[in-house]
Structures are given as C-alpha cells and as structure tokens.
Known about the structure:
The chain has about 80 residues and is α+β, with helices and mostly antiparallel strands. It has helices at about 30-40, 75, and strands at about 5-10, 25, 60. The chain has one domain. The model has no long low-confidence stretch (mean pLDDT about 80).
Amino acid sequence: MTLHREARLRPEHASEYPGVPSGVWMPAADIGAALLFNHLHSALPPQLGSRLLDEAHFEFRGGAPRDRTEVRTRREDA
C-alpha cells in the first residue's frame, strides 16, 4: 500500500477532464490541484460537490484508511 493516495480517471469520464489521462494512476493531490486550478481559471466554473474528485469518475488506492485521519478531533482530546 502506498502512503500517498492515488487516483485513476475512469475511461468513460475522460472527456469531462481534458488534460487528465484516463487509466493512469497518479497522485490524487496532483490531479486535485490541476482540477482546482482549471476551475479557478475557467470562465464558467463547474459546480463542485463535497469532493473535488468525484468517486463515480475516479478510482482510488493507497493512503490512510478513510475512517482514520492524522487530524486529531476533540473527542480524542478527552
């Protein structure tokens, strides 16, 4: 398992993400940064959901388990 989260664009959504190769594992942070840059410089930015990389459009692997983060919560302070 890699320490950094990776994402791969599903081929059926390739036309929605120009500049992002489909079927290639890349650092999710790099893809996210590129998408955010494109959104910010677009004349008509798309609606963003709760996540920048839509799970229906991307596959993910690696990184920390989803239910565990490095950020401490107040519940853990007690």
